[in-house]
Design brief:
alpha/beta
């Protein structure tokens, strides 16, 4: 793609605040000078906002204050004026009812901070699952030059000589406890080994997936995604990104120049190759909506079918992010896609170059971590989109983390009306369930939970686990952690709380799953389905007030990204009228 750079020098938007001798200009400058900034910094140079999602309650991002100093150093070096701005940090670890409920709020908050304040460009300093998509969504809506810097994954966990993947080990060990394979004391000892440094999950969970998506979209410098949080090269990447954003402002290289349909197609194929999180589907759809790109679940299915999963990382594979970085990281994966004709090579990146120029010389240093195609974890690694009378608008499944023997299955439904119903019943040996059944969880979608929590990977009942069974088909309108695994069908749309067919599934109904045929079918007649839907009554109450009510009233379905209905295609960074 050819990009025409803007003329430089020119008057930037920050000069509406700082450039001049009017009362209002003096008002804005004068107050900022109380921090000791000399007058020459207001001479028209790019003002760069470092949108920092640091928070001590967002452990993945707990080191970002330190990283911000390196970003600042790069901005100063390139002749910019850095200003650090704290923004809403939606922590996956702590937020209730679900961090996903606050992704849209965080996107709104950063959008208005970027639009309403005197910045010419932004560094999006992110890490935890929702911080990366929310800040990219906000930047896309303002269309101010922006670059993503992720905090990087934590170091490998080790427990008794074995790799411990943060998140993945948690799900596995909690099942082992129920199966009687592990003691509670061992579990507590393993806890100390799971998170042994700063950073995001060390598996190919949602955080590492979204870091990879940012790089594949062209919104981060090449190589950014995989550098460990505590590696000195992560600090170098932060400083280089600070330098680069200043030139991006001078060139007027904006998100709308980078976030094209071709860029999104690159990201979708990349997600298949890395065995990325199902959460990427919902975030990428939302981001595409912000820039007015026509992207659907059908695109995810079409583009992913032909992509082999070649990154051998948990939860789909064996290794962790530290090894992925040492093997060459995402540039190697993108190069492989390019060599296979699965990459739009000319797609523009924040570097100002096409993506192939960035990755064409990448080398693979470990073919056990980044596999040759003939040794791929699965030859069709993209997200599978299933449709049928149970999911008219679609549901998703991650083939690389599923069990092959369950990819075509017909089983009896065991229904849980909501997450509390599941928790009340799942450990009861009297529950009428075996490994041939299909577990169905309702009312955990965007409106239902609310916020669409990561509860879709329902733990199996102890009576089944004790038989040595480790996987069953599970269907819900919820999400699951990117660190999780299993034959788990998610994001079923329309959701139960909105009156989708999932809402009327009953215990004993037969459900057919055929992943190859992309089919998800409730085995009742069309007439009976219509009668059940006509008799259905909402089970989830509309919140009375506050953000929860706004969310409930305006959130769209998972199949379009669960963004707010009034935000699609909203873009622009016009400066509002100064009230002073």
């Amino acid at each position: 793609m050819t990009f025409k750079k803007a003329d430089w020098p020119r008057r930037l938007r920050s000069q509406e605040w700082y450039g001049g001798t009017s009362r209002d200009n003096i008002y804005h400058r004068g107050w900022l000078k109380n921090q000791g900034y000399p007058h020459y910094l207001f001479d028209g140079r790019p003002v760069i906002g470092i949108m920092n999602t640091w928070s001590e309650l967002t452990p993945c991002n707990g080191h970002l204050r330190d990283l911000a100093e390196k970003v600042k150093a790069g901005i100063w070096e390139a002749g910019g004026f850095p200003v650090e701005v704290p923004v809403f940090s939606a922590s996956e670890n702590t937020f209730r009812p679900s961090a996903m409920m606050f992704r849209n709020l965080a996107a709104l908050a950063v959008e208005e901070q970027m639009r309403g304040q005197p910045i010419d460009g932004a560094v999006l300093l992110v890490g935890c699952d929702k911080t990366t998509p929310s800040l990219m969504m906000g930047a896309a809506s303002t269309d101010i030059p922006s670059i993503v810097v992720t905090g990087g994954p934590m170091l490998n966990g080790w427990f008794r000589g074995e790799r411990v993947g943060s998140g993945t080990a948690l799900w596995q060990m909690s099942e082992d406890i129920k199966a009687g394979k592990m003691t509670q004391e061992d579990f507590l000892e393993a806890e100390q080994a799971m998170s042994r440094s700063s950073g995001t999950c060390n598996t190919m969970g949602t955080a590492s997936t979204m870091a990879s998506m940012a790089e594949a979209l062209g919104m981060a410098l090449s190589g950014n995604a995989a550098i460990p949080a505590v590696d000195a090269r992560r600090r170098v990447m932060a400083q280089l990104s600070g330098r680069r954003i200043v030139q991006m402002v001078k060139d007027d290289l904006k998100p709308s120049d980078i976030l094209t349909k071709e860029a999104f197609e690159n990201a979708i194929r990349c997600n298949g190759a890395i065995g990325g999180s199902t959460n990427a589907v919902i975030h990428i759809l939302a981001l595409a909506g912000r820039v007015g790109i026509d992207l659907t679940l059908d695109d995810w299915d079409r583009l992913g079918r032909e992509v082999p999963t070649i990154v051998n990382l948990m939860p789909s594979g064996q290794y962790l992010m530290e090894e992925f970085f040492y093997a060459g990281g995402l540039p190697v994966v993108l190069k492989r896609l390019g060599e296979a004709g699965m990459l739009h090579r000319e797609a523009l990146t924040v570097s100002g170059q096409g993506i192939w120029e960035e990755v064409g010389d990448a080398r693979n240093w470990n073919e056990d971590v980044i596999l040759p195609v003939e040794r791929a974890l699965t030859q069709s690694g993209g997200i599978a989109v299933l449709k049928g009378n149970l999911a008219p608008d679609g549901a998703v499944l991650k083939p690389s983390a599923a069990s092959p023997h369950l990819m075509k299955h017909r089983g009896r439904a065991v229904v849980f009306e909501d997450i509390d119903d599941y928790k009340a019943k799942i450990n009861d040996d009297a529950l009428d369930i075996d490994e041939t059944c299909v577990m169905v969880l309702k009312n955990c979608g965007p409106k239902g939970y609310p916020g669409m929590a990561e509860v879709g990977n329902m733990g199996l009942p102890p009576k089944v686990l004790k038989k040595g069974i480790t996987d069953m088909i599970r269907i819900s309108d919820a999400r699951m952690s990117g660190t999780a695994y299993g034959t788990v069908i998610l994001h079923t749309s329309p959701e139960a709380a909105a009156g989708g067919p999932l809402a009327v599934v009953r215990n004993g109904d037969m459900i057919e799953v055929d992943v190859a045929a992309r089919r998800l079918h409730l085995d009742i007649s069309e007439t009976e389905l219509k009668e059940r839907l006509a008799a259905w009554k909402p089970q989830v109450e509309r919140p009375l007030n506050g953000y929860a009510r706004m969310f409930f009233d305006h959130v769209e379905g998972a199949h379009t990204g669960a963004d707010f209905d009034f935000l699609k295609g909203c873009r622009g960074s016009e400066v509002g009228r100064d009230s002073h």
